[in-house]
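Action item from last week, closing it out:
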Amino acid sequence: MDVKDIISDEEWEKINLPIQENLQQYLKEYIVPELVAFSIANAYYRNGLSECSLERHYNSFSDVVITHFHLSEVSNQILNILKIKYSLIITNDNPMEIKRISDL
């Protein structure tokens, strides 16, 4: 079920839309450029860089990066980042509940 199905349009625009926009901005500014650059450098240094445009490399990379990993492969790293960088701990998985470390 999509979150839009359970909240009003006003709530969506006030709460969820800004969250998604902030995430998209963060991805655009910090994550995607670093990952694409790493992907290109990795291919170059392993003599695996194909002769195609930057746009094609980007499109190929974006197809792989989002769908390639299952949560079980990255969940420990996510938990560590939440703890170290954001001082948060997931106390319950479903439904997800989070607490600040300082509140424990």
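Closing note: Residues 9-45 form the longest helix (37 residues).
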